[in-house]
Amino acid sequence: MGYRVAVVGATGAVGREILKTLAERQFPVDDIVALASARSAGREVSFGEKKVLKIQNLETFDFTGWDIALFSPGGAVSAKYAPKAAAAKCLVVDNTSHFRMEPGVPLVVPEVNAAALKKARKGIIANPNCSTAQMMVALKPLHDLFRIKRVVVSTYQAVSGAGKSGMDELFSQTKGSFVNDPPTVAQFTKQIAFNLIPHIDRFMEDGSTKEEWKMAVETRKILDPDIKVFATCVRVPVFIGHSEAISIECEKPVDLEKARAALRKAPGVILRDEREDGGYVTPIECVGEDDTYVSRLRIDPTVENGLAFWCVSDNLRKGAALNAVQIAESLDEQHLIGKDSPLWQPVPRSEEPA
Ligand code: A2P
């Protein structure tokens, strides 16, 4: 049996990738609808190789009778429409940051905490931030082995993390530089072509950015509430593929060979770590790939029980669309989709929020 599936934000960078991923992975779809703003109504997007979908207007769409909706239209739009879909018993997997830290909304990376899906109390499941998602799949096997206490991470994030308009800005600034056009800065705060910007999302009171804060709080919600995370998030002139330099400090003594063996076995992780020219993975090599790549694994001798590595993943796949579709697959495996799902039953008072 298949489901009636809605994709919200279907004209965007992540929405298109969600349609592609649903088709590629043959998610059981009986009926599918692509939704975006009134501006795009009537435009066409493809679903798989054979099917073309006409965009419908989210504002006037009725979610009654639809089983699951994958949302990536931006935080403010999800804030308004995800609860409407959930009220119609259409389960929402939301890719924006809006609901991530809300009690009763599980924040899920299926390789790490698929069991949390059963605790969805509001008909909404949140997909983590792109930088958090790839870090979680790499940290999980190491946490199981050595109990991570603290993480220090620097990110090198692709412009597609800022949506299609971010990609357009890098493209036009790069092209413009060859014909001496002055760069137009709109999506980012400074020129991104041939540059780096140590600022993603808004500034917080302590001088961190919201992106850095998200990596810390999301890690604690997904992996372990006791892990401390210090992040520095940087936008780089790469179209697709986020990279991260990650250092961890663990409770137990770290063994490099055990770490290698655990990473080799971990779901969603590929260890490519040859200590020679080119024996590591760069962002351009992971475009269109589902896995998260770990390279440059080495002991950090400057702290007790320290380990450091390089981690690369396609931010539109594991960081967004793939993780959302994997959540949908896991909901299906756990029989949590559909009008008879236990998620729509009244919650016993004694039960803890997710
Ligand atoms: P639209 O193309 O009609 O503006 P990206 O993150 O790549 O910029 O994509 C954002 C997605 O969210 C697009 O599909 C966009 O549709 C959609 N979107 C933005 N605002 C709204 C809105 N008010 N209602 C529905 N969809 C929206």
Automatic annotation (TrEMBL):
Residue sites binding phosphate per the record: R100
Listed name of the protein: Aspartate-semialdehyde dehydrogenase
This protein's UniProt keywords: Amino-acid biosynthesis, Diaminopimelate biosynthesis, Lysine biosynthesis, Methionine biosynthesis, NADP, Oxidoreductase, Threonine biosynthesis
Keyword Thylakoid: no
Positions of substrate binding: Q157, R235
Superkingdom classification of source: Bacteria
Pathway assignment: Amino-acid biosynthesis; L-lysine biosynthesis via DAP pathway; (S)-tetrahydrodipicolinate from L-aspartate: step 2/4; Amino-acid biosynthesis; L-methionine biosynthesis via de novo pathway; L-homoserine from L-aspartate: step 2/3; Amino-acid biosynthesis; L-threonine biosynthesis; L-threonine from L-aspartate: step 2/5
Catalytic activity, EC: 1.2.1.11
SUPFAM superfamilies associated with the record: Glyceraldehyde-3-phosphate dehydrogenase-like, C-terminal domain (SSF55347), NAD(P)-binding Rossmann-fold domains (SSF51735)
Active-site residues, Swiss-Prot/TrEMBL: C130 (acyl-thioester intermediate), H242 (proton acceptor)
Record-level Gene Ontology MF annotations: aspartate-semialdehyde dehydrogenase activity
NADP among keywords: yes
Subunit structure: Homodimer.
NCBIfam families documented for this protein: asd_B, PRK14874.1
Enzyme class: oxidoreductase
Physiological role: Catalyzes the NADPH-dependent formation of L-aspartate-semialdehyde (L-ASA) by the reductive dephosphorylation of L-aspartyl-4-phosphate.
PANTHER family on file: ASPARTATE-SEMIALDEHYDE DEHYDROGENASE, DEHYDROGENASE, PUTATIVE-RELATED
Pfam families the record matches: Semialdhyde_dh, Semialdhyde_dhC
